[in-house]
Amino acid sequence: MKVDAVNSKQIEQFLTFELANEVYGVEILKVQEIRGWEPVRVIPNTPSFIKGVLNLRGSVIPIVDLRERFSLEHSDYTQKTVVIVLCIKHRRHESFVMGIVADAVSDVLDIKVEEIKKAPNFGTQLDTRYMRGMHVYKQNMIMLLDVDKLLNPDEVDDIEAISDIGSFE
């Protein structure tokens, strides 16, 4: 019985999703919900990767397009496009709710912590600060994101100011 308790602490669950023909993963405990794409209210003078805000049960939730955040090629939103609503922690904030745009949701995987490979250092050509590590699953490389690092503190402050606009009527 004690062995199972130890092993369960060494396994984490990740929600995997597709983005520009690559597979990414986020800790399932950070995921609040998954929604289909719907038009957002555009907020002027925000970075291009912030698509706008959505009404989530009366709260204003900023939506971040990871394709733009990661400098990937643009793609039109389709019926498979989803918004993954995340609750992140940030050093100046207890928690912060935001949505990320993904091409499609794939699966929920149980991953042993010791099977998570450290994110490789590609020098200045590829920004790996958002990555927690990598995992090989069925011959596919899954990039595991550290969602708490998707935004820097100043960006969180700016987005939180947008979220304080008020609730939707």
Explain how this protein is built:
The protein has 169 residues and is mostly beta strands. The chain has one domain: CheA-289, Domain 4 (OB fold (Dihydrolipoamide Acetyltransferase, E2P), Beta Barrel), CATH 2.40.50.180. 14% of the residues lie in helices and 45% in strands. The chain has 3 helices and 10 strands; from the N terminus they run H-E-E-E-E-E-H-E-E-E-E-E-H. It has helices at residues 2-9, 66-69, 153-163, and strands at residues 11-19, 22-27, 31-36, 50-56, 59-65, 82-90, 93-102, 104-112, 131-137, 140-145. The strands form 2 sheets. It has a 5-stranded mixed sheet. Strand 1 (11-19) and strand 2 form a beta hairpin. The longest helix has 11 residues, at 153-163. The radius of gyration is 17 Å and the shape is globular. The N and C termini lie far apart (52 Å).
